[in-house]
Amino acid sequence: MRGGWNRREGLINGDFILHLDEQATARGGDGSGANGSGTGQSADVPAIRLVGIEKRFGPVFANRNIDLTVAKGSIHGIIGENGAGKSTLMSILYGFYQADSGDIYVNGKRQKIPDSQKAIAIGIGMVHQHFMLVENFSVLENVVLGVEGGALLGKGMDKARSELKRLAEEYDLRIDPEAIVEELPVGLQQRVEILKALYRGADILILDEPTGVLTPAEADHLFRILGQLRDQGKTILLITHKLREIMAITDRVSVMRRGEMVGSVHTAETSVEQLAEMMVGRHVLLNVEKTESKPGDEILSVEHLTVIDKRGVKRVKDVSFSVHAGEIVGIAGVSGNGQSELMEAVAGMITASNGTVRINGEAVDVTSKADALERRHRGMAHVPEDRHRTGLVTKFPARENMILGYQDQKKYGQGTFLDLGAILKETEEFMVDFDVRPPDPNLKAANFSGGNQQKLVLAREMERNPDILIVGQPTRGVDIGAIEFIHKRLIEMRDAGKAILLVSVELDEIRSLSDRILVMFDGTIVGERPAGASEQELGLMMAGIADTSGVADKAATPSADTVGAE
Amino acid sequence: MDFLQTLILTTDSAVRLSVPLLFACLAGLYSERSGVVDIGLEGKMLGGAFAAGCVAAITGSAWLGLLAAILVSIGLALVHGYASITQRGNQIVSGVAINFVASGLTALLGQAWFGRGGKTPQLPNTARFTEITLPFAEPMRNVPVIGRIYSDIISGHSLLVYAAFIAIPLTWWILYRTRFGLRLRAVGENPGAVDTAGISVAWMRYRAVIIAGILCGFAGAYLSIAQSAGFSKDMTAGKGFIALAALVFAKWKPLNALGACFLFGFLDAVAIRMQGTALPVVGEVPVQAMQALPYILTVILLAGFIGKSIPPKADGVPYTKER
């Protein structure tokens, strides 16, 4: 409604939204129809009402005049791109920050929330994006931390143990209280965070980007849990930038853009396209438009590749495949099934114990030494999965990151000294070409947003015009506008006759970009499917089931699918 | 019988020598478990030893000496705490500074006040913690093995020695059985978790640092008014660093700390005993070689014989609330 929402459909939508807003306040928890947990009049009081919240960091408004109403017993999504102010708003609600102005009403009562303790006391719990867990503590110790119930642990721990058991049964959140957190998979660690909040008596649960670290299966499980919690009368605030999640689970959605609240809608009455437009402020192409691929010569061939990790576990088991010029081969799979190791072995970050890798028909050494530089000389470029760990030196400025791995090239200087002018000039060109914002070559990599960091890495690798690009998780933690851009560039590169090996845990991404899809499970390639394979079929293969003849029939329509929509 | 006699005497000496290490090691344990690296154990011990020596000499009371040692040591600990917790400064630099200040200031003040080249006056036994004989130590002496152990090794130490050995299980109990211990362990691993649970990270760390000060005070007082009869210049002689090594060696666990400190104490005792004695085959070993043994052992053991020693994850990292 505010801030540049001036296209014709937008105005219509805006009016529509406003109308819904008023209705929602009047109808309260009854709004979604799916829950109906409130009893009598108390359901009319919203669980959370924010009025005119403002927060600025220096001259920058992180939140500007935010109004938000969250009905009791509902799942309320808050979406927005990275940096839209969602996390700041939730931090204000959880007492991490103080709002500069504005009022917070919790269950109809005006509250001041100076610290987390107060938030906990009035029934607000938070599941942080980066878990706030003590990793070498047991589940039980983590749960009681801060609410031990006395100076000695004995009694409190016993009480907590039985309380955990009760919660586990009530909400189907089963977990071994004595398990050490760092030994649990991420999905279960998140469960500990949820239990922590519930143990403290939270009625309102804030989840900040909860699926960022989860596999699709774990995410689905989380959504089931959240659904149960809602059915038991809990109010859930879900912060995310993934539209799929919003559509799958929420009752209502509020959209934020650049620190402002753009509007609130009923999930059932909106669409992915509308939300995306509200988020970005312009029309977004969710469909990746691409033509049939025209595969050419074989550029990369991998034969019988086996990778054994430091602990002696076989991570990649006798894998063979090839990538041709002018095609994108996608490797799908739940994370941790050997995709990372496969990619790292091919790209020369780790050695394989067995197998052959050929680039343009010539074999490279994969077993005795991992030489990424040699592969670069042969025309392979690599965008690693984790831009913070291996893609960038975040403390270096953009210009230094832009030449990492290529620093020995003559154009950057001969002999001992670097040609700073040449580096600066090229970085500027690359940044403009890849629309990196701000286009400042001297800014530290850490100070760019996730999407722009990713563009820096992609620019570095793709601008070298490689014959084959290995790209892992190209859009992890990247906002929707940047996703659109990155996908477009990958397709362009393919159309220019380059070979691309894409590894992603985002099934939507794999399905919309790939010309051929390989599915990995437990270190092996379970099978290959054409571009049009259905989600169910691939999902089964990701669980290790190779024979998908049952579902394959009805899903064989060869069309590129959309990114966010289901 | 001669060998047994030697062993008993050496063990008895090892008990005495491991006491300052034990106190300092536990001090480091509290501090580092809370996430504050404490390289200033040495300086706090030295400051404490000097304070105890001075006050005991002036007042004639060992107890007042101990109290003074604790206060001075807490004072130094608070300086370290302010620098590393409140100001989020570099904890190593702050610790090293404390060591230098303590070393310089004790010598300077000692010379200025007493004029004996940095020594404090020789203390009479009434102003020291002297050996106490446990009940039945004499009659037990005739009982084979157990009797000898009881009367020669366990009995006949000063009060502070017993305090050190009680501090070990007490620390274990505090760490693993109390709310304070749970929070202490948590704040050194993930202060963010502690903060979001509504507990003040800074206050937790200050308390840990203060406890470290108290324990270093005990260690210092032991050196100057129990083991010796007065303070002498730089009398800690690197014990603070050995305690730090023992802490790593003990993997930051109290019961292991007992083993580590006792081992270093024992090596020290052996080194003293071996002085001037000729060994078969190698002949007389230079004193310096024996004295270097604990350090050499530390390097060897830490280099891989004890497995991985993983420090508390937030050890040495100042806590800043993140956005």
Give the topology, please:
The complex is a heterodimer of chains A (566) and B (323).
Chain A: H1 8-27, E1 48-57, E2 60-70, E3 75-79, H2 86-93, E4 101-106, E5 109-111, H3 116-121, E6 124-127, H4 139-144, H5 153-171, H6 186-199, E7 204-208, H7 216-231, E8 235-240, H8 243-249, E9 252-257, E10 260-266, H9 272-280, E11 298-308, E12 314-324, E13 328-332, H10 339-347, E14 354-359, E15 362-364, H11 372-377, E16 380-383, H12 387-391, H13 398-403, H14 420-433, H15 450-462, E17 468-472, H16 480-495, E18 499-503, H17 507-513, E19 516-521, E20 524-530, H18 535-542, H19 549-552
Parallel strand pairs in A: 3-8, 3-9, 6-7, 7-8, 13-18, 13-19, 16-17, 17-18
Antiparallel strand pairs in A: 1-2, 1-4, 4-5, 9-10, 11-12, 11-14, 14-15, 19-20
Chain B: H1 2-33, H2 41-59, H3 62-86, H4 91-114, H5 137-140, H6 146-154, H7 159-177, H8 179-189, H9 191-196, H10 201-227, H11 239-249, H12 254-274, E1 278-279, E2 283-284, H13 287-305
Antiparallel strand pairs in B: 1-2
Main traits of this protein?
heterodimer, A: 566 residues, alpha/beta, Rossmann fold, 2 domains, 6-stranded mixed sheet, 19 helices, B: 323 residues, mainly alpha, ABC transporter involved in vitamin B12 uptake, BtuC, two-stranded antiparallel ribbon, 13 helices, 2 strands, 70% helix, globular
How would you describe this protein?
The complex is a heterodimer of chains A (566) and B (323). In chain A, helix 15 (450-462) packs parallel to helix 16. In chain A, the strands form 4 sheets. A 6-stranded mixed sheet of chain A has the order 6-7-8-3-9-10, with helices on both faces. In chain A, strands 16-17-18-13-19-20 form a 6-stranded mixed sheet, with helices on both faces. Chain A folds into 2 domains: 8-280, Rossmann fold (3-Layer(aba) Sandwich); 298-555, P-loop containing nucleotide triphosphate hydrolases (Rossmann fold, 3-Layer(aba) Sandwich), CATH 3.40.50.300. With 566 residues, chain A is α/β, with parallel strands linked by helices. Chain A contains 19 helices and 20 strands. Chain B has 323 residues and is mainly alpha-helical. Chain B is globular, with a radius of gyration of 20 Å. Chain B has one domain (2-126, 144-305): ABC transporter involved in vitamin B12 uptake, BtuC. In chain B, strands 1-2 form a two-stranded antiparallel ribbon. Chain B contains 13 helices and 2 strands; from the N terminus they run H-H-H-H-H-H-H-H-H-H-H-H-E-E-H. The A-B interface holds A 87-88, 91, 96, 115-117, 120, 126, 128, 130, 132-137, 141-142, 144-148, 150-154, 156 and B 176-183, 185-186, 189-190, 192-199, 313, 321, 323.
